Amino acid sequence: MQALRGPLNYDEEPSRHLSLIINAKDPFNAETPRAALVESYVTPVDMFFKRNHGPIPILDDPQRYRVTVDGLVPKPLLLSMDDIRLLPKYTVTATLQCAGNRRTPMSKTKLVKGVGWDVGAVGNAVWGGAKLSDLLKLASIPENTANTEAGGKHVEFTSVDACEEENGGPYKASVSLLHATNPKADVLLAYEMNGKVLNRDHGYPLRVAIPGVIGARSVKWLDRIDVIANDFQGFFMQKDYKMFPPNVDWDNINWLSRRPLMDFPVQCVICSLEDVCSIGQGKKVNISGYALSGGGRGIERVDVSVDGGETWIEARRYQKNKVPYLADSEECDKWAWVFFELETEIYPPTDIIAKAVDSSANVQPEKVETIWNLRGVLNNSWHVIHANSPAKATHLSL
Ligand SMILES: Nc1nc2c(c(=O)[nH]1)N[C@H]1C(S)=C(S)[C@@H](COP(=O)(O)O)O[C@H]1N2
Ligand SMILES: [Mo]
Question: Residue 242's closest CA among 119, 374, 122, 116?
Answer without folding.
Answer: 374
